[in-house]
Amino acid sequence: MAHFDTEYQRLEASYSDSPPGEENPLMHVPEGAKSQWHHIENLDLFFQRVYNLHQKNGFTCMLLGEIFELVQLLFVVGFTVFLANCVDYDILFANKFVNHTDSSKVTLPDAFLPVDVCSARIRDNAFVIFVLIISGVFWLHRLVKFIYNVCCYWEIRAFYINALKMTMSELPYATWQEVQARIVEIQKEHQICIHKKELTELDIYHRILRFKNYMVAMVNKSLLPVRFRLPGLEESVFYTRGLKYNFELIFFWGPGSLFENEWSLKPEYKRGGNRLELADRLASRILWIGIANLLLCPVILVWQILYAFFSYTEVIKREPGSLGARCWSLYGRCYLRHFNELDHELMSRLSKGYKPASKYMNCFLSPLLTVVAKNVAFFAGSLLAVLIALTIYDEDVLSVEHVLSSITLLGVCITVCRSFIPDKHMVFCPEQLLRVILAHIHYMPDHWQGNAHKYETRDQFSQLFQYKAVFILEELISPVVTPIILIFCLRRKSLEIIDFFRNFTVEVVGVGDTCSFAQMDIRQHGHPAWMSAGKTEASIYQQAEDGKTELSLMHFAITNPQWQPPQETTHFISQLKERVHREAAGASSDTHPLSLSESEPRSLVANLLAGPSTLTSIHFGHDSSLTNQAGLSDGASALRSLSPNSGSLHLRGSLNAAHTSTMSKAMAGSGTDARTVSSGSSAWEGQLTSLVLSEYASTEMSIHALYMHELHKQQSHGELSRHTWHRQDSDESSDSIPDEVRSEPNPRHFPRSHTFPTTVPSPSAIPTSASCMSSTTLGQEGAASNRIGQQGFTNSSSDSFGARGRVVKSARGVPMGGWAEEGQAARRHHETLPEESSEDDMPPHIHKVNAVCV
């Protein structure tokens, strides 16, 4: 990362959410009028506990979970010591006979050693004594922490009941937006923060996610050493919970960390004069923490192995194929996370993208491996059938040595083989699946588009979506690898880390020191290739990669519609939403010059923003509540049609004028928060209302994410736009375009993302468009991933926008996903359908799709 030397700065008024003239108010409240919650000193920890109690479904559930964690630790240590020192395995395995006077049958207690023999073996084993001492100290530390947490969360429980007026029985069914709205409201009464008259949603998010925003920014800027290229192997990612814990220990809360408390960076790190000295100090601290990890490696490694054994053995026995299942990697969660995105919001997005991601990875099963797996499964199944038949005929067969073990191993073998055999109904169209995935995860390297069918893309996606077995293996070897990464990789980046925290830390009134990227300020951190051209002043060093600033801003604005951003940010949001709505209106017209033929699916934007007919029964009353609940379930199912779980892509019909107007206000962020409206006459109605409106917010964000990626792709390919709502030269906004921008002769080149570095294909190898659409997959999970509007988005603006929305007619080649030939527009005519191939030409049970590549 290049060095960008700037001084730490106090946040300007334009950054702050405070009204003008109230940048640093100190609220004076008479002593007698102060409530219990007046002036909470550590609001970061307070809001984190409020959020955690909500996510853990109340005080009782949290208390039971903490108690069982303590018992679980005792059980793992005690049971392991017992198995290692107090069991006579010769008797257990029938290698030694036991003399019984009353019975010849060996019982389980016969294999247990006497208490005096067991205790003597434990005392004579120095390693066991060492493990018990370490475990005892750790358990006592957890016990003290548990008692402290119980006292703290009891106070949070009282805050919910007395201040927020929410009982613990209501908490599991209340959304976080409802809790947050009440916190914002009681600030006026209780003044829990004395530095501001009013709290905003962004203030609460900043305090809960202060350190996580820094971690997301460091991953986005490729500052953390988590990507490695071993000799003879492809580039890989290693990011585990142990490594993440050490990063946070070094940067945020450990002894000698960069922060003096939860909300303030140490003063010496805010000045650039002693950066070299601070870098040496940080490197020395990283070295000592790495050495400590190295010394504790044996103990931690034993604990990891034991915990994994007790946690996953039963699951593997019950579902042997679970190790072949996939999960979102820890690196994937950090790479895909928006700035200011809470844990439950992130997991909701990733959960919706899980099934299409699994189907995409299953598209790359090896045909050769499939043939082998089928035959191995046949032979194993034959042996298993014989053994089961013999067991049914006479149960004494089970008493024969290794028969039961053979049955178990054969069952596991068959289950593993089935994981390599594709579904016979599976349709191979990876471009569509990758489009569905993008609609939910919102981030994707540019060079993946058009290359979804390649193994290189699949291998890179597997870094985000890895096998569960790989996840477990990485956690097991983490105690060995983590010290190496700290000592040999992280230490070398100490100067860049010092510069990062100085350059990208700002002080927000009433919040403290936060990561400047978390402000989601287009002017400071926007990227010109992501609709910020003419609005951003950021240098290459200051720009967030992969459109992180713009996408995070849209996500936060849609999730929190009552949030009132600064004027420049409001203009960006409203401009983008206006473009999406106008594109939808144009694509939905039958007479539109860019509308699709009847044989093709409508634009994704047109489908979703036109509105489902099933929602016409929803009526918003004058009190902003949903008064007709009859159509809510239908509306929820219609909205979920964007999800790959649905059976139909099309959202039929349209909302009537009154309903569309009200919903547009909710989606545009004006008026009442649609997710915190009155829930009606019953808790069930309120939950259903929240579900439907939450689906609307998720769907709207998916639309905007796809739209922004499409515009970014067109701009990076240098395509010229022909929007029907293209602003004319007579538009008054043309006065705001600088002459040098309007007449710029050469294209500006922007750096491509380093988050997924790879070799970019030559311009001649890049297709004009690689979006693949199949009519046979409409109504299935891949259908929702059709290229946005296809022809409808052909007229999406790939031109740069000026500060006030004037279109700048300059094609810009952006090296973020491939170069387009200058002066050439992408081909937009349909090609002839290829002839059908026979099934013999395809891998077993994979149907080939007749595709139209536009």
UniProtKB/TrEMBL annotation:
Pfam families: ATG9. GO terms for biological process: autophagy of mitochondrion; lipid transport; piecemeal microautophagy of the nucleus; protein localization to phagophore assembly site; reticulophagy. It comes from the Eukaryota. GO terms for cellular component: autophagosome membrane; endoplasmic reticulum membrane; Golgi apparatus; late endosome membrane; mitochondrial membrane; phagophore assembly site membrane; recycling endosome membrane. Residues 1-26, 661-681, 718-782, 812-846 are annotated as: Disordered. Keywords: Acetylation, Autophagy, Cytoplasmic vesicle, Endoplasmic reticulum, Endosome, Glycoprotein, Golgi apparatus, Lipid transport, Membrane, Mitochondrion, Phosphoprotein, Transmembrane, Transmembrane helix, Transport, Ubl conjugation. It is a multi-pass membrane protein. This is Autophagy-related protein 9. Phospholipid scramblase involved in autophagy by mediating autophagosomal membrane expansion. Cycles between the preautophagosomal structure/phagophore assembly site (PAS) and the cytoplasmic vesicle pool and supplies membrane for the growing autophagosome. Lipid scramblase activity plays a key role in preautophagosomal structure/phagophore assembly by distributing the phospholipids that arrive through ATG2 (ATG2A or ATG2B) from the cytoplasmic to the luminal leaflet of the bilayer, thereby driving autophagosomal membrane expansion. Phospholipid scramblase involved in autophagy. Cycles between the preautophagosomal structure/phagophore assembly site (PAS) and the cytoplasmic vesicle pool and supplies membrane for the growing autophagosome. Lipid scramblase activity plays a key role in preautophagosomal structure/phagophore assembly by distributing the phospholipids that arrive through ATG2 from the cytoplasmic to the luminal leaflet of the bilayer, thereby driving autophagosomal membrane expansion. It comes from Gasterosteus aculeatus aculeatus. Residues 755-779 have a biased composition (Polar residues).
